[in-house]
Specification:
Blueprint (H helix, E strand, L loop, with lengths): L2 H10 L4 E5 L6 H8 L6 E9 L2 E8 L6 H8 L4 E3 L2 H4 L21 E4 L1 H4 L3 E5 L5 E6 H8 L2 E2 L5
Parallel strand pairs: 2-6, 3-5, 5-8
Antiparallel strand pairs: 1-7, 2-3, 2-4, 6-7
């Protein structure tokens, strides 16, 4: 989803947000440093396969997915990191690894780490390696309706 489409979606839903531009960065920790945001407050989007169905996991940049815990929390038999080949065509206009966490727009379930829900704001990649969007977590939750599950270590 190109940034223009994402901004139009947020505007159509009367969401207040801030655009943050930063120098090119590719890992979540590099992005956090480049944008001067704590790794605990920057949300990264990871695409996983849960029983062969693609889903988004959204967690703080400073954390990692605990696949055993995610498997337990979702009741799945098999949870694994999805390969780029499995999902790259689903996100036209997005740079690989910079997908915004709006799985609802892609027909994907979204799972969020509980630690992201305690902050009033959430910041995330906006489809490129140089742009972030920062918005109220409550607005994100209202639009995306993620499932909040313990999934990170």
């Amino acid at each position: 989803m190109p940034i223009k489409t994402l901004k139009a979606y947020l505007d159509a839903n009367d969401i207040r947000y801030t655009m943050i531009y930063h120098s090119p960065a590719y890992t979540a920790q590099e992005i956090a440093a480049s944008a001067h945001i704590s790794g605990h407050n920057l949300a990264k989007t990871v695409i996983v396969s849960i029983d062969n169905e693609l889903a988004m996991v959204v967690l703080p940049a400073s954390r990692h997915i605990n696949f055993d815990l995610l498997c337990e929390m979702t009741g799945a038999d098999n949870v694994r990191l999805a390969s780029e080949e499995e999902f790259e065509s689903m996100f036209p206009g997005c740079e690989l690894g910079a997908m915004p966490p709006f799985g609802n727009l892609y027909g994907m379930n979204v799972y969020v780490a509980p630690s992201l829900t305690v902050d009033h704001q959430i910041a995330f990649n906006a489809g490129s390696h140089t742009e972030l969007i920062k918005m109220a977590y409550a607005d994100f939750e209202r639009l995306v309706k993620p499932r909040i599950v313990s999934l990170a270590c």
